[in-house]
Amino acid sequence: MSPVRMLIDCDPGVDDAIALLTAAHVADLVGITTVNGNVGIDHTTRNALAVTELAGLDIPVHRGASRPLVNDPIDASRIHGATGLGSVTIPEPTRGIASDDAVAFILDTARSVDDLRVVAIGPLTNIALALDADPSLPDRLGGLTIMGGAAVGGNVTATAEFNIWADPEAADVVFRLGGPLTMVGLDVTHQVLLGARECRRLRAAGTPTSVLAADLLDYAVERSREMKGWDGAPIHDACAVLAVTHPELFGGARRPVALELTGTHTRGMTVVDERGGEPDDSHVTVLRSVDSRSVVRHIVDAVIAVGSN
Ligand code: BDR
Ligand code: CA
Q1: Which ligand has its closest atom nearest to the C-alpha of 20?
Q2: What is the pLDDT of residues 165-198, one digit of tens each?
Q3: Cβ(231)–Cβ(225) under 8 Å?
Q4: Residue 283 annotated to the active site
Q5: Which residues lie at CB < 5 A from ion ligand 2?
Q6: Which domain CATH number covers 58?
């Protein structure tokens, strides 16, 4: 079976970097677009270029939005470090961006690649702008999968997850799109923790990408221990990649989802209607369960394999 063709919209970001490496092995990664998010657009774009170059991947990187639709830019450097890759340094990329028009690249690729799967693992600014430019975009996609939101709880506020909270208006556009949309939220990603065991496996493999992933993971595990007292770190964004390539490892249901834009305590909340009407014809599939052990294994295997090609 030929691999799924995938475009990733991202804001690397420690877990985005691991997601890119994972995707390059489990999918045919046709392009990468970057967005302001975990850190500013200069850093996220540079990190996408640097990570792919280190892995020996010649995948075009297109720079995207430098700010959210309405919000002032906010970042997650508290989690991902000032440059977005924690305390890890990667050589400066020698390759430059393919363009500074991520939206045009998304629209063109949807036209030229059959059954394209778009995986958005940062704030949804680029995707909302693409939908605004061409509302028929969903008709040409094999599907859109996002890492974002939660049926229950949040990680930036009590009710909001970072990617949604960073640009709620963009998320609102995306959730109203009407094409198949899969939401991989904290409900799933908080069940998939990578820890010391995975660091050891990655380091022992000794490839440039596996050592990079081990360094990133060490940093993420330490942050997770400090901030949450957890014995491992959620690598959120890689879960969204695997939800596309290995859907059998995830469970969920179609549910109506609305975006809270105005609530004093709930701005950025993904309000999932769990009442489950019959038939439930929502276009959004909300994933809630996951075979965590298998997903962890696939992430580690992929990161090791991509560096051994
Ligand atoms: C999401 O927010 C970012 O900090 C991560 O890269 C991930 O995409 C998790 O809430
Ligand atoms: Ca991200």
Answers
A1: 2
A2: 999 999 999 999 878 999 999 999 999 999 999 9
A3: yes
A4: no
A5: 11, 13, 16, 121-122, 237
A6: 3.90.245.10
